[in-house]
Design goal:
The chain is elongated and about 55 Å long. The strands form two sheets. Strands 1, 2, 3, 5, 6, 7 and 10 form a seven-stranded antiparallel β-sheet that branches. About 30% of the residues are buried. The chain has one domain (about 1-40, about 65-210). The protein starts with a strand and ends in a 21-residue tail after the last helix. It has two helices and eleven strands; from the N terminus they run E-E-E-H-E-E-E-E-E-E-E-E-H. By secondary structure, the chain is mainly beta. It has helices spanning about 45-50, 205-210, and strands at about 1-10, 15-25, 40, 70-75, 80-85, 95-110, 115-130, 135-145, 150-165, 170-180, 195-200. Strand 8 and strand 9 form a beta hairpin. Keywords: Signal. This is Tat pathway signal sequence domain protein. It comes from Brevundimonas lenta.
Length: about 230
């Protein structure tokens, strides 16, 4: 199902509205980012990893023609992960539902005085720990457009309902968005804007993320036992 939202923006750089369309497909940190057309993955590559490029975790988008630079697109570090914790101790046994924005790819296109159209694809890795109740959970995430290094122009929230089928501890979901940013005139280029994405997290979750602490998406899940070989 595709949803199209239109929200008002107040800026000398934009003409009137931001339009965001969402299409979701399911399958069994701000991290540093490049411009659209590149892919953003969590973590920092080692020297060996930089020499030998790894296979992408998320499919790249079709390249579009742009008359100028594209907006920067980033995952906000404080909201890159979602970890529910119960009790007063940070342990794997107290983990409920978890999630991580595992990858991001984007591209943009615009010509003359046309609006800037940004296509993004987000990869979510989701899990449920020992304190998770049930096999369904609705995560929430947001997409924000800002004047680069200045004010937030608008921020839109989206629900991400997930079912962990057949007792699964993890699930992977891909979300695709089309973000349309009207421009005041043809001289307004894409690098005036920045697009940020992240989970809707509590202050405690954001502090947990900032601390650098982390659990796997299936933290605390019971692992299958392996019988020792017969003697």
């Amino acid at each position: 199902m595709r949803r199209v939202l239109k929200v008002s923006l107040a800026s000398a750089l934009v003409a009137a509205t931001l339009s965001v369309g969402i299409a979701s497909t399911a399958s069994a940190q701000a991290y540093p980012t490049g411009r659209p057309g590149q892919q953003q993955q969590p973590g920092q590559a080692t020297a060996d990893q930089q020499q030998a490029p790894a296979a992408p975790r998320i499919a790249p988008l079709r390249r579009r023609a742009a008359a100028g630079p594209c907006p920067y697109v980033k995952i906000l570090y404080d909201a890159a992960r979602y970890v529910e914790l119960t009790g007063d101790r940070v342990t794997a046994s107290n983990v409920g539902f978890t999630g991580e924005i595992e990858g991001l790819s984007s591209d943009c296109g615009y010509q003359f005085d046309e609006p800037i159209t940004v296509e993004t694809r987000l990869l979510f890795n989701l899990g449920r720990g020992p304190q998770a109740q049930g096999d369904q959970h609705t995560y929430r995430y947001w997409v924000a457009v800002t004047e680069r290094n200045r004010a937030v122009l608008d921020k839109v929230y989206f629900d991400l309902p997930v079912t962990f089928e057949n007792g699964a501890q993890t699930a992977t979901v891909t979300q695709e968005q089309r973000i349309v940013i009207p421009r005041a005139d043809a001289t307004t280029s894409g690098d005036n804007f920045e697009i940020l994405v992240g989970f809707d997290v509590t202050p405690a979750m954001a502090e947990f993320n900032r601390s650098g602490s982390r659990f796997r998406v299936n933290a605390g899940a019971q692992q299958p036992t392996t019988q020792p070989p017969a003697q």
